[in-house]
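Put briefly, the fold is written as integer tokens. The lines below illustrate.
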Amino acid sequence: MLAIISAVLFFISFLVNAADISTNDTFTSTNIMLLGLMVLALHVAGIGSGWSVSGRGRRR
């Protein structure tokens, strides 16, 4: 889920940069890209990945 959010943030950042949309200082394409990188780092770290299936329900 976090990877999808990160992809959406990267896409918004690309659109802001490619269309040369003037935004205020908070929502620049660089800041949106950095938010996407932060969310991607959380995804890689395993935050928000949900339940682990590997050890649950398959006990012998």
Observations:
- Helices lie at 2-18, 29-45.
- The mean pLDDT is 80.
